[in-house]
Amino acid sequence: MAWDKKFEELLREYLPFLGAGEPLEADTDLRLSGLDSLGAVELLGSLEGAYGVHFVDDALSLDTFATPGVLWATLTRLRALV
Asked: Of 49, 51, 54, 56, whose CB neighbour count within 10 A is largest?
């Protein structure tokens, strides 16, 4: 799964347990990498602002923020609706 540089940069800001040299893989567990509930809300706002989308109710779940792959797929789907 290939996401853009902006997505990875934004996401890494909310992953304090993922070292700068560690790769961010599609199946990286975001919670184990340090994404907490407050960080998820802040990340949501950052993604909405950066990509001009709005996360609708069905996209607001813990599953959406489980891995970068799921989050990118959701963001891609929302961008297609704009």
From this structure: 51
